[in-house]
Design brief:
heterodimer; A: alpha/beta; Glutathione S-transferase Yfyf (Class Pi), Chain A, domain 2; Rossmann fold; 4-stranded parallel beta sheet; 3-stranded parallel beta sheet; 7% strand; globular; B: alpha/beta; 4 helices; 37% helix; 15% strand
């Protein structure tokens, strides 16, 4: 790509994300989970380089792909620099220049997403539905299941319970007397493509999904996966400004149901758990209290918070299935140690990818006794399902 | 699932449709087998594009999906017979990976006949020609996969 085009894009991004307000205080770098493991990486340095107009150095550097876009920096920046959006925008620029990230499994999920842009697809993605589960093609509530049927095949060896959250979501909704729309016409939400700078694929997927959601007559879309939720609430509107169907995270919806007295948590779940906030859910959107309110109402359940929790929660070390390396593994093990230190028997998480990453991190040789990170990671909804 | 995907309904191909097929051949058996086919002057359909890999075990699901994404209508993976692998067990890994790929293709709604795994040794020039001809015929009948972006 021409140098001046990169420069132009960079100037636009600096304005759009407020990077010009950066006072170089370094709060971002001191909070960054990657800097902690790899001192050569510094968010502040990237912004300073950008402000100095070094467009090609920024767009061509490995650093913009290493960033987890976990938004710890943006959340705490005193001058509200939208750091994650800055990185995302630079990725779009870099991709136009032919630079692409290293993706997990050789970019398998990206290829799947690419194949899903075919209009007449005919997926067979509902094989996981169990006998007795009630789902429909049309209805008031739509359950966006995300890519769990695919992740189940790809990462099945690392995590044999990828689909448990999706199944629990259907069961819980059924117990509430709701028959959710779950359809084979759903496609990848495009979150990973959006964050990897592949705007074209993302927009195609978003359009196809919006068209499908509208055709089901749904009034409310419920998402379990934080990444799908982020794409549906914040990014689809950039593709279609008329997309105004209510999108709720399932924890928000269940909280409402709890307040209305429709959701009754009666069965005892006698154990201690801890909860891992996904970055998309806790920081990008700000759903922090709802999951905790739900856990509080489960009889017999004790909730032990980790050292970093809520909107200051540590990250799972990989986002959008890009750049999984030693740094990721260190971040994951650090988080697992935090979880284990709470004394909880399980760590709950909504994000299927977080769960896969944590389970993967525990395999293989560890530089310390395995007991230090030996904690089960399960889907949040499975606990609620047991309590109803 | 029983339902056929729209792209997989046989006989929908436009007249004159010639499929594009990517064939991954292992260096030690199947690529040599393909060589023998040529050296022996056996005819086989020109629809395949051979990519040589060191071992069929190198083929991961994304190789197949990426081929479809770039416009292939079928993918052939060929390696040494079980027990004959130059790396002892690479073809067993290939079996596992292809099974995993087939499951992904099924969920995605791609007719699983578009992916074929065959064991072809260096001495089986005739088998290579027969396999390619039969596979090309099958994919031709299936019609275009239609995933290509370009």
């Amino acid at each position: 790509m021409a140098a001046d085009e990169a420069k132009q894009k960079l100037d636009g991004l600096i304005k759009k994300t407020g990077a010009f307000d950066c006072v170089e205080c370094g709060k971002c770098t001191s909070l960054c989970p990657i800097t902690k493991e790899d001192p050569n990486f510094a968010p502040r340095l990237i912004v300073v380089k950008a402000l100095e107009g070094m467009a090609e150095q920024v767009a061509g550097a490995r650093d913009i792909w290493v960033c987890l876009t976990c938004a710890r920096c943006s959340a705490k920046c005193p001058y509200k620099v939208n750091y994650t959006e800055f990185i995302r925008g630079m990725r779009e620029t870099a991709r136009k220049g032919g630079v692409a990230p290293a993706c997990s499994e050789g970019g398998l999920m990206n290829s799947l997403a690419g194949l899903m842009t075919k209009p007449d697809l005919g997926q067979n993605r509902l094989g996981w539905l169990e006998e007795g589960m009630k789902v429909a093609e049309k209805g008031q509530y739509l359950l966006f299941t995300g890519c769990t049927p695919y992740l189940n095949v790809i990462f099945g060896e690392k995590d044999d319970r990828v689909l448990e959250g999706t199944k629990a979501a259907v069961r819980i909704l059924n117990k509430l007397g709701i028959t959710p729309v779950v359809s084979a016409d759903e496609r990848c939400c495009g979150h990973d493509q959006y964050w990897a700078g592949d705007r074209e694929t993302f927009e195609k997927l978003a359009r196809l999904n919006i068209e499908w959601i509208k055709s089901t007559g749904a009034k409310t879309v419920l998402a379990t996966c934080p990444e799908c939720f982020r794409a549906l609430t914040k990014d689809y509107q950039k593709v279609d400004p008329d997309f105004d169907i209510e999108v709720l995270h399932i924890s928000e919806f269940l909280c409402d149901q709890l307040e209305d007295g429709k959701l009754k948590l009666t069965k005892e779940v006698p154990e201690t758990v801890t909860y891992h906030d996904g970055c998309r859910l806790a920081r990008h959107i700000g759903v922090v209290d709802e999951p905790r309110m739900l856990l509080e109402k489960v009889p017999g359940l004790k909730m032990a918070e980790m050292e970093s929790a809520g909107d200051e929660s540590a990250c799972c070390g990989v986002s959008a299935l890009m750049n999984c390396d030693n740094t990721s593994k260190s971040i994951q093990l650090r988080r697992l140690k935090e979880a284990k230190a709470t004394g909880a028997s399980r760590m709950l998480a909504f994000c299927p990818k977080c769960r896969i990453h944590f389970k993967c991190a525990r395999t293989g040789n560890l530089p310390f006794p395995k007991e230090e990170v030996d904690i089960d990671v399960v889907d949040f909804l499975t606990v609620l399902d047991r309590a109803i | 699932m029983e339902a056929e995907s729209p792209s997989g309904v046989a006989g929908k191909a436009a007249p004159g449709f010639e499929p594009k097929i990517v064939a991954f051949c292992c260096n030690w058996c199947s690529y040599a087998g393909a060589d023998l086919t040529g050296v022996s002057r056996m005819q086989y359909s020109p629809n395949i594009r051979i990519i040589r890999v060191m071992c069929s075990g190198r083929i991961e699901p994304n190789f197949v999906l990426r081929a479809l994404e770039l416009g292939a209508d079928g993918v052939l993976v060929a390696g040494c017979h079980i027990g004959d692998c130059h790396y002892i067990s690479g073809n067993k890994e290939a079996e596992k990976q292809i099974a995993r790929t087939a499951r992904l293709l099924e969920i995605l709604g791609v007719d699983k006949r578009r992916l074929r795994l065959e064991w072809i040794s260096a001495s089986e020039g005739q088998k290579f020609a027969n396999t390619v001809n039969a596979f090309t015929k099958e994919v031709r009948e299936l019609g275009p996969a239609g995933y290509g972006r370009k």
